[in-house]
Please model this.
Amino acid sequence: MNKLKRILGIIWMVLGPLAIFYLVRVALNEVAKKPVIDTWIQWGVFIVIFIPIAFGMVIFGYFAWRGEYDHLPESSVEIEDD
Amino acid sequence: MTEINKETKGIWKVIGASSVGTLIEWYDFYIFGSLATVIANQFFPKTNPTAALLSTLATFAAGFIVRPFGALVFGRLGDLIGRKYTFLLTLILMGGSTFAIGLVPSYESIGFAAPIIVLLLRLLQGLALGGEYGGAATYVAEHAPPDRRGYFTSWIQTTATLGLFVSLGVILLTRHSLDIDQQKSIAKFNDWGWRIPFLVSILLVIVSIYIRLKMKESPLFSKLKSEGKISINPLKESFVHRGNLKMVLLALFGATMGQGVIWYTGQFYAQSFIENVCKVDFDQSRTIIIWAILFATPFFVVFGSWSDRVGRKWIMMAGMLAGILFYRPIYQQFVTLTDIDSLKTSQVTSVGEPVLKRELLKASSDSLITTTRLNISADGISYKEVNTDTLHASGKISSAKPLYTEKKLPAPVYWKFVLLVFVQIIFVTMVYGPIAAFLVEMFPTKIRYTSMSLPYHVGNGVFGGLTPFIATLLTTIYTGDKLVGLWYPIGIAAVCLMIGLLYVNNRIDPDVND
Model:
C-alpha cells in the first residue's frame, strides 16, 4: 500500500499544473468568445484562486512521493516533532 | 449519576449556544445568495456596467476569496486570544453587516455609493463566515467526551443546512404575506419586502450574542493559556511547519474538497437545476428543497454518532462514492419527469385562451409575435408554453423552439422530486456529519482553529461554492448534454475519494487535549 501511495504521489504532482493548464485554456477560449468585463472577472477569479490550490496539490504529491504519508501521526507531539 | 447529568447538561448548553449562532451566520450568508436577483435590481442595475461589475465581484469575491481569508484571520485570533471571543466577534460582524444590507438605500436614491456599500458589507459577511465555523466546531469538540465527539459536533453540522432551510422559509413567507393579492405581495417584496429577511436577522443575532457572552472559554484552550503553551505564531506553525502542513493538505484533498462539492450539489445545484433546467416554478423549486432538508437533517446526527463507533473515514468516503455513482441517474430523473418535448399533442390540454403579444423590433421593420398558452399534460404538469415567431417585412415567418416555463408539478411527481433531493442530502449528511470531529482530531489544540478552518473553507467555500457556477458554465460550453455540469462535482469527489481511501486513516483520536 505504501508503494502505491508513493507512486500516486507523482500523479498528484502532475495533476496540479495539468488542471491549471486546462483551466487557462478554457478561460482564454471563453474570454475570446465573450470579451466582456464579467467574463474576465469570472475566469480571472477562477485562475487566481485555483493556482495556490494547484500548488498545494503539487506539494501534497511531493509529500506522498517522499513517503511522508506512509505513517500518519497519532499524537500532536508526533506532528510537532515531524 | 448527578455528575453525569451535570456534564451532559453542560455540553447541551455549549451545543445550543454554538449552534444557534452558527445557524444564524449561515442564514445571513444565504439570504444574500437567495435574493441575488432582487438585490441586483436594487443595487446593481444591468444598464450600468460598473454597477454590474460590482455585482459580479460581490458574488464571487465574498464566497470564494474572502472566506479562506476569514479562516486565516479569525483562525489565528482564535488560537491567540481564545475561541469564545473570536466566534463572538464573527457573529457581531456577520449580524451587523446583514442588518446594514437591509438598510442601504437603493441605487436610485444614492447612486454609486449603494453598490459599493453593499459590496463591502458582503465582503465582511464572507470574512465573518470564514471565522465562524472553525470556532464553533472546535469549541464544541473541546467540551465533548472523547467517545461522543462525533455525536456532539454533528449538531454543529446541522446548522449550515438548517441555515439554508430557514433562509428559504423566511423568504417564501415574506414574499407571500405582504398583501392578500399574491401578485401584489410579490411586487411589494421585490420593491421593499426583501429587506425584511435582512432586518429580522438582528433580533436573532442579539439573542445569540447574549447567549454566547454567558459562555465560558474552551477548557482546553484555558488550560493551554494558563500553562503558557499557546502558539506564538499560529499561521507559521500551521502552514510552514512541515508536519502540520502535510495534515492540512491531507484534510483538504482527502476530505473537505469532496465534502464541499457533495454539499453544494445536493442542495444548491439541485435547486438551481430544478428551477433553471427543469423550469419548475419558483415556489415549488424551493419547497422541494425545504421538505427534503426537513426530512434529511436528523441524519447529520445519525452519521455523526455512528462515526463514534465505526470511525469517520468510511462514512465520509461512502457518501462521496454514492454521489459519484448516483448523481447522473438522479438528475436524469429530474429531466425525464419534467420533459415536455417528448409529449404527443394528444397528451396535452390547453387551458383558456392563448395570449398574443406583438412588438416591433428596433432598427428593422420585423415584428416579434409571442403566443403564451397555459397547458396541462396528461400526467398533470401544468406549464406555460411560449412560442415566439418573427414576422419579417417580406411576409416570411420564422419560428423559434417553444419554451416551457413555470411548470407546476402534480403531487406524485412533486414528492418524487422531494425524494430525489432527500437522497442527495443523505449523501451530504454522510460526508458532513462526521467531518467536524475528523478535522478537530487531526490538529493540535494550540493551532486547531487556524489549521482546520483553512482546509474547511477552501474545500467548502471554493470547491463547493463554485459548484453551481462551474456546473452551469459547463452546460453553456457543452450545450448538447443537460447533465454535463455534474462532471465537475463527480470529478472532484472522485479524486478526493481516491486520496481519502489511500491516505486518510480511520483512527478516532482518543485524546484531543494535546
Observations:
- The longest helix of chain A spans residues 2-33.
- Chain A has three helices and no strands.
